[in-house]
Design brief:
Blueprint: H1 2-5, E1 44-49, H2 55-67, E2 71-76, E3 82-83, E4 89-90, E5 94-95, E6 106-110, H3 115-119, H4 122-133, E7 137-140, H5 144-149, H6 162-169
Parallel strand pairs: 1-2, 1-6, 2-5, 6-7
Antiparallel strand pairs: 3-4
Length: about 210
Amino acid sequence: MADGLGLTEMPEPAPAARPTRTDLPPSDALSMLKNPPPNFAGRTVGVLAGNGVEAELLTELRSILQAEGAMMKLVAPRVGGVTDSAGTLHPADEKLGGGPSVIFDAVAVLPGSDAAMLAANPAAQDFLTDAHAHCKFIAHHGAGPLIEACALGGQDGRGLDRDRLEQRHRRFRGGLPRDAPLAARGDAGREPSPSPGRFPRDSPLGA
């Protein structure tokens, strides 16, 4: 921690009311990693979407999250919302720049035909890089330009497979679908853990 803060000298420790005990074993009961929630109910996914987003994909994603008791918030470049590939207008819950990724438990990036525009948008770059830095699970489809603009192109992820979402939805086992396509995640290289606020590693929105 001292190295991370750039401290050259350690401060004197604060006086303790009792001597610090170092002989206690780790507590499984206090571990967040060993006590994950059984499912994603009550969580919120922020979906950054652009015009031309695939209508079926957006609909299926919302349906799956609702089935899990989770919420989906649409984040759009314009406060009026986005128009999907079928011509349907979806009002925005948050405007890009005013609804940062840090307020969501997980995020999805579905830029549609606005991929190039979002890749050059500093607020969109912040949305993705902040999600990555905060170790959020990140689902993505068609977001290659934005990922490259954020220098995250080396992350291992396959994005969101629209054709298999419904198939996976039928295979729920107390959480999100098992062995589904995985997306880029912010904590690449760590041990997998469905800790609070994250999708299980084997969900369609995790990786």
